[in-house]
Specification:
The chain is built from 10 helices and 11 strands. The protein is an alpha/beta fold and about 300 residues long. It folds into 2 domains: about 65-155 and about 250-290, D-Maltodextrin-Binding Protein, domain 2, CATH 3.40.190.10; about 160-250, D-Maltodextrin-Binding Protein, domain 2, CATH 3.40.190.10.
Length: about 300
């Protein structure tokens, strides 16, 4: 009887051990399956994130690709802004900026297309995608830098007061008190003129050519203009106008939309090459008689 009882206990013990091992194997298998599923989920999530990031990176800035695909870069300009951009006697666009931008576009592998634009709304037109860039003697200011991204300055100039050649009464800002002064609407010349105190009237024109015409006809006693423009007109009519004094010094740059970083990077690289190989100096001498080109960063 004891032997039978002992045999039953042994069999019971063996059965318990086998059952325990089976449960452990099942638990381990279940754990491994859960871990594998979790790992698969993590991998899928990572792949999804990477795929999403890749799409964002490739789609976030196609500015350079867009220009190259179009085969042209469109440029907003004021076409009455000599000697930077204006029309010759055959109504062809010519000037320092025209020559520079044509060469830069060529080096990018595209054509340049210039779009004459009302200067008072030129930044709005850029940000509304009416054209790719503004390359038209744009003065670089802190206010404008909030709306656009600038290239390094490629010229330095000033805002100056221009009077008739026989007028010796205007030598300082105080001499402008009580006088009628003209300038271009929406320009940094207007900004400089607005700071002159005591004017009888500040007349604003859509183009500088209109301002010079009124000065020549005695409808104004002085005008505030970009120095390069003023000096150009004086070379064409040397006995009619003169620079009385400077008001504000300003760097000149190319304006891009804030998001068009790839296009800006490519065009700045081209400008650096043109500066290094002497192309900018050659074009400057053609229009100004000397090399006044530069390429320097401006911080605001």
């Amino acid at each position: 009887m004891k032997k039978i009882f002992s045999l039953i206990l042994v069999l019971f013990f063996i059965a318990a051990v086998v059952a325990g091992c089976g449960q452990k194997a099942a638990d381990t298998s279940g754990t491994n399956t859960s871990n594998q599923a979790a790992q698969n989920n993590q991998n899928q999530t990572a792949e999804s994130n990477n795929s999403g990031n890749g799409a964002a990176n490739t789609g976030s800035d196609d500015s350079l690709e867009r220009v190259k695909k179009a085969g042209k870069i469109t440029i907003g300009i004021d076409d009455a802004f000599p000697p930077l951009e204006f029309r010759d006697d055959k109504n062809q666009l010519v000037g320092y900026d025209i020559d520079l931008s044509r060469e830069a576009a060529k080096r990018l592998g595209v054509e340049a297309e210039w779009i004459p634009t009302d200067w008072n709304g030129v930044i709005l037109a850029l940000n509304s995608k009416k054209f790719d860039i503004i390359w038209s003697g744009m003065s670089m200011t802190a206010d404008r830098a909030k709306q656009v991204e600038f290239s390094p300055a490629y010229l330095n100039e000033a805002q100056v007061v221009v009077v008739k050649a026989n007028d010796d009464s205007v030598k300082t800002q105080d001499d402008l008190k009580g006088k009628i002064v003209g300038t271009q609407l929406g320009s940094t010349s207007e900004e400089a003129a607005n700071k002159i105190e005591g004017l009888k009237e500040l007349k604003k024109y859509s183009k500088f050519t209109e301002a010079f015409l009124d000065l020549a006809n005695n409808r104004t006693q002085a005008i505030v203009v970009d120095e390069l423009v003023g000096r150009y007109y004086m070379t064409k009519r040397p006995n009619e106008f003169k620079v009385a004094f400077p008001l504000v010094k300003e760097p000149i740059g190319i304006a891009f939309r804030k998001e068009d970083k790839a296009l800006r990077e490519a065009l700045v690289k081209v400008l650096e090459e043109m500066k290094q190989d002497g192309t900018m100096a050659e074009i400057s001498k053609k229009w100004f008689g000397e090399d006044i080109s530069t390429l320097e960063d401006v911080n605001f």
